[in-house]
Amino acid sequence: MFRLWGKMMKQNRLLKDMVYCDDSDRNRTRKVFSGLEEICLAFDLENPIWLESTIQEFQRHSKCRFNKDSFIEQIEFDYLEIEVIEEEYGNGEY
């Protein structure tokens, strides 16, 4: 099972959160993009732009933040954070 946690934050307070679950056999990248798309749909947001710094942060920590620079439209929150909270590989290992 793959689970991605999305959180919308403003002034260090949680405005909205959602956990996206995927148990398909797609690769990790496709699961992350699909999860981010579903989270944005649930939060009524456009999909953010992956900046180079965002990509590097996600690769290092399996977690990243999308701030106002990642969105084309103006946002009413400080950042959207996504984090992989569970990841099971094909052989049942985590």
Written overview of the protein:
- It is built from 2 helices and 4 strands.
- The chain has a 4-stranded antiparallel β-sheet.
- The longest helix has 15 residues, at 28-42.
- The model has no long low-confidence stretch (mean pLDDT 93).
- The chain is an alpha+beta fold.
Write a brief caption for the model.
The protein has 94 residues and is of the alpha+beta class. The protein has helices at residues 28-42, 52-61, and strands spanning 2-10, 13-22, 63-66, 79-87.
Instruction: Specify the structural class.
Output: alpha+beta
The helix/strand order is: EEHHEE
Number of helices: 2
Instruction: Please give the largest β-sheet.
Output: 4 strands, antiparallel
| Overall spatial form | globular
Strands in their spatial order, largest beta sheet: 2-1-4-3
- Distance between termini? 9 Å
Fraction in helix: 25-40%
Nearest-angstrom radius of gyration?
13 Å
As residue ranges, the low-confidence spans are none
Mean pLDDT: 93
Number of strands: 4
